[in-house]
Specification:
With about 210 residues, this protein is of the alpha+beta class. The chain contains 4 helices and 16 strands. It starts with 10 loop residues before the first helix and ends with a strand.
C-alpha cells in the first residue's frame, strides 16, 4: 500500500475540527468524536472512547485518524486504510453507506444540540383546528423512535373524520417542516406559523396545529 500523503492543516480542516456525533440511522446508538486540527499518523488526530464506541460501532476499533475534503469526512487507520467514508447530505450532517456497514451518520455537535432543542419544543400535546375554530382533533407527538427519522404519535379519541381517514401514526421534522405520516405512506406537511404549525400548501380554511 502506498504511503499516505502528508496531512496539511487548511481552512477546510480548521472549519471541520471540533465535536461530532456518530450515530445509527435512528440514533439508538451514538458516539462522540473530537476531530482535531493536528497532524498524526494517517491524517489528523481524533479523540473518542475507543472501547465504548467500538462496542457500538465495531469498525471504530481500527480508526486512528481523519481526513476531509469540501464535501466528505473520512475516518481511516494509521496506514491510511479507509474505515468510514462520510459524504455531506446537508449542512453539518454526513452519511456513510460503505459495503458491509449499516447506514451511519456523522453530525456536528451544534446540529445535534439544535435538533434536540427543536424536538423538545415540538413534542407533546397538540390540537388540530380549522382556522380560528374549535379543535377537530387532539394528538400527542412523542420522542419514541418509530423508524429512521420517525417518531411515534398518538391520536386521541373523538377526532374529525378527515383526520381518522388520514390516520397519522408517526411524525418527524424535515428541513424546518413538521411532517405527519400515515401507515399507508400518506404525508401531511406543516410549516412554522409563529408558535403554531400550518398545513401546506395553504388552503382557504387553513388547518393548524396549536398547543392546547
Amino acid at each position: 500500500m502506498p504511503k499516505p500523503a502528508a496531512a496539511q492543516v487548511n481552512d477546510t480542516i480548521k472549519g471541520i475540527a471540533g465535536s461530532w456525533e456518530i450515530s445509527t440511522a435512528d440514533r439508538d446508538q451514538t458516539c462522540m468524536l473530537t476531530l482535531k486540527a493536528e497532524t498524526g499518523p494517517g491524517g489528523f488526530r481524533l479523540d473518542f472512547d475507543k472501547a465504548g464506541c467500538a462496542a457500538k460501532f465495531p469498525p471504530l476499533k481500527d480508526v486512528a485518524a481523519w481526513n476531509a475534503s469540501n464535501d466528505a469526512i473520512r475516518l481511516n487507520d494509521a496506514r491510511g486504510r479507509l474505515i468510514y467514508d462520510f459524504t455531506e447530505v446537508e449542512d453539518g450532517m454526513y452519511e456513510s453507506l460503505k459495503a458491509g456497514q449499516p447506514l451511519t451518520f456523522l453530525q456536528s455537535a451544534a446540529v445535534v444540540q439544535a435538533a434536540v432543542r427543536t424536538m423538545d419544543q415540538t413534542s407533546g400535546d397538540w390540537n388540530i383546528v380549522r382556522g380560528a375554530g374549535t379543535p377537530i382533533c387532539s394528538l400527542t407527538l412523542s420522542t419514541k423512535n418509530a423508524g429512521p427519522g420517525d417518531f411515534a404519535l398518538q391520536v386521541k379519541p373523538g377526532c374529525d373524520a378527515a383526520i381518522t381517514r388520514f390516520g397519522p401514526t408517526v411524525w418527524q421534522l424535515d428541513h424546518g417542516e413538521l411532517v405527519l405520516k400515515s401507515a399507508r405512506g400518506q404525508i401531511w406537511r406543516f410549516e412554522d406559523a409563529s408558535g403554531a404549525w400550518q398545513r401546506v400548501p395553504a388552503e382557504a380554511d387553513p388547518m393548524l396545529l396549536v398547543r392546547p
